[in-house]
């Protein structure tokens, strides 16, 4: 087992990882920018190293400084959290070259999944169902027309190097297609430095369903069930739940089994998420994230398994603590992402939290790094906390969520709490009847 883990992140996820390390009796080092000197994870860590000024590129993305912090403190492993360097293959390679363990998959696996064309090709080879579309990059107009006619309109053009929901164009007819192809290519080139684009069938009303997987790096793969993350705004997840209200036990076991086998065949190590669009009973792979996800706590709630413990165990060579048949799903869990944003316009609302009171009681978990008197810096994303609620079934979970939202107090700044108080009373949400466009339509109708 590791002696000392360096946590290369900030905010709630840095605290989340720190807690796991403490439970496992592992020493902790955190790195932070000058803007985060007062953060909770910095206060609670065994050691901390200031690695630079507020902008991420000078601190949390500064590989050189982070490796130096490992060497100074004698850390033998790095947990990257999510975002920042968590899916940076070069970072994983550099740590390996310094004999420091990256708590995550190999640089090569990160690289494959980071290139969406390559990821889709790999998924297909591993027997994962993919969205019908081009086999690789498309550059010629003629070829684009042929493929689109074959799969049928509407189609979506996506950037191979894309991410964060950027670089996508929908074409509803052949007339749209030519323009969409040109704009997608030039936008991808400008945004990602790579103008490779591919075409796939555009699904009209899918749900976003993702499968949590783990590999032990030695040919074993398991799945921890699915999460439904269909409630999104601008491709950003807002509310996540497990299990999905749309799946039955048979579908769950089937897609979970397909993903677990694929992970085993790939020889993958650590946590991963295989994301699908789901429509009319069919799953369509869209991408794989090679890291811990923001929404991992809903999976922990229904399985009772600490996924960060598992990540650390696997990375240290100790293997997974559970076999597939030992992973049981109990009850229902929902996560609300609480952002420091105006609940209507979603403009960021940094500033000082004058009062912070979190709900409690059975089935309630709050993952947050903030406290009363904490000043939210304006430099980073606006997530200030996650409320995760567990109940024996979805109805109990929703009742408990409504109560917990009423108890939650964040004063001094604006937050998205009022949005969740509205959602929890909505009939479609109560019935679990929503697709990936539901939330944006709801927000547009409210205006
Ligand atoms: P990114 O890496 O940028 O997040 P994804 O491939 O995961 O890109 O897609 C992001 C979102 O775009 C999906 O959650 C979905 O809302 C939409 N999307 C992607 N592909 C399709 C498709 N073939 N049909 C319909 N919507 C899609």
Automatic annotation (TrEMBL):
Signal peptide per UniProt: none
ATP-grasp domain span: 120-316
Pathway listed: Lipid metabolism; malonyl-CoA biosynthesis; malonyl-CoA from acetyl-CoA: step 1/1
SMART domains: Biotin_carb_C
Keyword annotations of the record: ATP-binding, Biotin, Fatty acid biosynthesis, Fatty acid metabolism, Ligase, Lipid biosynthesis, Lipid metabolism, Magnesium, Metal-binding, Nucleotide-binding
Enzyme class label: ligase
Pfam families associated with the record: Biotin_carb_C (PF02785), Biotin_carb_N (PF00289), CPSase_L_D2 (PF02786)
Domain of life of the organism encoding this protein: Bacteria
Keyword Protein transport: no
GO molecular function terms noted in the UniProt entry: ATP binding; biotin carboxylase activity; metal ion binding
GO biological process: fatty acid biosynthetic process; malonyl-CoA biosynthetic process
E.C. number(s) listed in UniProt: 6.3.4.14
Domain Biotin carboxylation positions: 1-444
Reactions catalysed: N(6)-biotinyl-L-lysyl-[protein] + hydrogencarbonate + ATP = N(6)-carboxybiotinyl-L-lysyl-[protein] + ADP + phosphate + H(+)
InterPro entries: ACC_Biotin_Carboxylase, Acetyl_CoA_COase_biotin_COase, ATP-grasp, BC-like_N, Biotin_carboxylation_dom, Biotin_COase_C, CPAse_ATP-bd, PreATP-grasp_dom_sf
Function of the molecule: This protein is a component of the acetyl coenzyme A carboxylase complex; first, biotin carboxylase catalyzes the carboxylation of the carrier protein and then the transcarboxylase transfers the carboxyl group to form malonyl-CoA.
PANTHER family, alphabetized: BIOTIN CARBOXYLASE, CHLOROPLASTIC (PTHR48095:SF2), PYRUVATE CARBOXYLASE SUBUNIT A (PTHR48095)
Oligomeric and partner information: Acetyl-CoA carboxylase is a heterohexamer of biotin carboxyl carrier protein, biotin carboxylase and the two subunits of carboxyl transferase in a 2:2 complex.
Protein name: Biotin carboxylase
């Amino acid at each position: 087992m590791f002696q000392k883990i360096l946590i290369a992140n900030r905010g709630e996820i840095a605290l989340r990882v720190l807690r796991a390390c403490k439970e496992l009796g592992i020493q902790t080092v955190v790195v932070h920018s000058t803007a985060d000197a007062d953060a909770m994870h910095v206060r609670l860590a065994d050691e901390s190293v200031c690695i630079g000024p507020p902008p991420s590129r000078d601190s949390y993305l500064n590989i050189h400084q982070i490796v130096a912090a490992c060497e100074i403190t004698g850390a033998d492993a790095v947990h990257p959290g999510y975002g920042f360097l968590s899916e940076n293959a070069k970072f994983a390679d550099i740590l390996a070259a310094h004999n420091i363990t990256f708590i995550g998959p190999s640089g090569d696996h990160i690289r494959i999944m980071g290139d969406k064309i390559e990821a889709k090709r790999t998924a297909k080879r591993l027997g994962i169902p993919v969205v019908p579309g081009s086999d690789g990059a498309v550059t010629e107009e003629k070829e684009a027309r042929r493929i689109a006619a074959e799969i049928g309109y509407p189609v979506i053009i996506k950037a191979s190097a894309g991410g964060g929901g950027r670089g996508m164009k929908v074409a509803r007819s052949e007339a749209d297609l030519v323009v969409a192809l040109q704009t997608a290519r030039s936008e991808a080139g400008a945004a990602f430095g790579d103008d490779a684009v591919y075409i796939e069938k555009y699904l009209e009303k899918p749900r976003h369903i993702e499968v949590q997987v783990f590999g032990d790096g030695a040919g074993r793969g398991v799945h921890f069930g699915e999460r439904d993350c269909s409630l999104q705004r601008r491709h950003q997840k807002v509310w996540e739940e497990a299990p999905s209200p749309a799946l039955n036990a048979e579908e769950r076991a089937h897609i979970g089994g397909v993903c677990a086998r694929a992970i085993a065949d790939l020889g993958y190590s650590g946590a991963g998420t295989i994301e699908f669009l789901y429509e009319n009973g069919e799953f369509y792979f869209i991408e794989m994230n090679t890291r811990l996800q923001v929404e991992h706590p809903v999976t922990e709630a229904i399985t009772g398994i600490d996924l960060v413990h598992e990540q650390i165990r696997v990375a240290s060579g100790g293997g997974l603590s559970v076999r597939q048949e030992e992973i049981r799903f109990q009850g229902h869990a929902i996560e609300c992402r609480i952002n420091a944003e105006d609940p209507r316009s979603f403009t960021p609302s940094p500033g000082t939290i004058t009062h912070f009171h979190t709900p409690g009681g059975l089935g309630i978990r709050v993952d947050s790094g903030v406290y009363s008197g904490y000043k939210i810096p304006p430099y980073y994303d606006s997530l200030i906390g996650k409320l995760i609620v567990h109940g024996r079934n979805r109805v109990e979970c929703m009742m408990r969520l409504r109560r917990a939202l009423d108890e939650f107090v964040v004063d001094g700044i604006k937050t998205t709490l009022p949005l969740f108080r509205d959602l929890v009373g909505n009939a479609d949400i109560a019935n679990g009847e929503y697709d990936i466009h539901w939330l944006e339509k709801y927000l547009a109708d409210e205006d």
